[in-house]
Design brief:
The chain is mainly α. Helix content is about 65%, strand content about 0%. The chain is elongated.
Length: about 240
């Protein structure tokens, strides 16, 4: 069995799209932090984090299945709006969800399986055990959850409704923020600190040089090297 942990996203995605469950599991684990990051941005919309996380995971699986590397776009850049879209579709649904018989049957099977297990199997493990797709497992697990109305208050005093929180499309800006945070977190601590101080705290090179016991020229050169590497990483 291939150790997908050491393979690139492109290779792992290709295997996942060819119905390799271990590759799909590897991709969902590899990008789970991205799902959680997106999910946290919707915590004020009336849903618990676990619900948002599961919806985001469904969006991630859809992104993995539909990603096309020929477009020369990073998978994370492609996946973010798909994950957001899955969460937003749920939030925009102001009607009652019709749960089909097959979904109810799958939910019953999952409930029985979980009641017989002492551990907490993941979505892909449940899917393999019941011969279901990960999407069917997530759909069945989500079928019993409450559907929130757009008129549902999201503040204690009731002055803001769920519909008030769904406004202009900010996906492009959100993608940029998420990508920037990902790039910054990939830097060594000292380099990340320098960039944060220069561009977020707006500190001068002279002040940073004084704090670090360096010359302004050294700080300037370091900053240039870091920015160049960030641009290369961002493609």
């Amino acid at each position: 069995m291939t150790d997908w942990a050491n393979e690139s996203d492109d290779a792992t995605i290709a295997a996942a799209q060819a119905d390799d469950p271990s590759a799909m599991e590897a991709m969902t684990v590899r990008h789970d932090a991205l799902v959680k990051f997106v999910a946290r941005r919707y915590l004020e919309r009336g849903l618990e984090f676990d619900d948002l996380h599961q919806l985001g995971r469904l969006g991630l699986i859809k992104a993995i299945r539909n990603f096309n590397g020929a477009f020369k776009v990073k998978f994370s850049t492609y996946a973010v709006p798909v994950i957001m879209g899955e969460i937003r579709r749920f939030l925009r649904d102001d009607g009652q969800v019709h749960v089909t018989r097959s979904i109810r049957e799958n939910a019953a099977k999952i409930h029985l399986l979980l009641s017989e297990r002492e551990d907490a199997p993941g979505v892909n493990e449940i899917a393999q055990a019941l011969a279901l797709s990960p999407e069917d497992v997530l759909l069945a697990m989500d079928s019993g959850r409450r559907v929130w109305s757009l008129t549902q208050p999201v503040t204690p005093d009731g002055t803001m409704l769920l519909q008030d929180t769904i406004g202009a499309d900010t996906i492009p800006e959100e993608i940029e923020k998420i990508e920037l945070e990902r790039l910054l977190n990939s830097l060594p601590k000292s380099e990340k600190s320098l960039i944060v101080r220069r561009y977020f705290l707006e500190q001068t090179q002279t002040r940073i040089a004084r704090d670090l016991g360096m010359s302004q020229v050294q700080v300037s050169r370091m900053e240039s090297r870091i920015l160049k590497r960030l641009r290369e990483m961002a493609g």
